[in-house]
Amino acid sequence: MASNDSMDDNFIQVNKKKNRKSFKFKKYNDYCKNNQENVINLSEKLDEKVKYLKTSNFIKEVMESFDSFKILKIDFIRCLALGSVSINCDVILYQLGLLILIKERFNIKSENISLYDPVFTELDENFLTNKLGFKIHVEDPFIKSDNGNRDENKIIEMKGIYYLPHCPINVIEEMIIKSEPKLVIGNSFIVHSEKMISRKLYFEKYPKFCQICNLVEKNLLNKEKKPKENFNTGNNKEDDRKEDDGFTVVENRKKAIKKKNRNRNKNKNKSKNENPEFNQIEEKIVLEKKINDIESEYFSDCNIIAYRKNQMNRIGGWGNSFSDFAIHEII
């Protein structure tokens, strides 16, 4: 018969034959119930994660990276695809903790923190809105009026961060078109692009996203051609170059591009009909030209700072919460 004494918040004591004791997990649904006990429990866990993040070099360097972009003021944060705080507790709470620290850094009002994820539970929404004071919006509240344009009197002067912890490409594409973000943090766009099986197919479905990725890749190649240039600050002092600042250029398609150039030189005298690889290279060149020819009303370039995956996993206790984390400045 089960005892009424509980050992801690996570386990329940159970008596078996011969007075042996064993433990079993509380029912999964107990943690997701929308009640005050679970709200307090989430709040305490979030406080622990925030305190831990504050002591990490990762957070220090993320905050310093805002200085490298000369970002002095942020008025709002729009967070998409955070995930369920109550279901995927530790990973999501670390990611929510980063949002809290950015909010504190720029002194952003809680009412100007807008989140949306279709997986939010009633407990999630209760915790995020009533406990933290944030807002839940299906549509981006910071960007457009009824006529589809920005509110000239209120929104145009506001500067915001778009935080996308687990955002799929289709949501990113829609956000780029509707919200026209200038600063995006979350998983690196380059990591997304490297997973593309067919860039042509992705270009047809997500042209704006592909254009931004193309701009990022060009900038990264230019950075690699200038190894003496400090990627984070632009400072070329010898002492600064010797320091490891915790950031690195994201690994991109450099090897593929080198291979493409070798194949092009090797096969330049061959007929296109005799060389299928030549046709593929030509197709990529045409596709890249189409990407570059896309007209954009609000961006012409994109810079990126990405945190080292191996170092982050080594020094952080947050698992894969920030495994491909990057900051994108869309210009």
Automatic annotation (TrEMBL):
Domain SRR1-like per the UniProt entry, residue ranges: 70-328
Chain positions covered by the region annotation Disordered: 226-277
GO terms for cellular component: cytoplasm; nucleus
Record's compositionally biased regions (Basic residues): 255-270
Skewed-composition ranges (Basic and acidic residues): 236-245
Family, per entry: Belongs to the SRR1 family.
Protein name in UniProt: SRR1-like domain-containing protein
Organism (species): Ascoidea rubescens DSM 1968
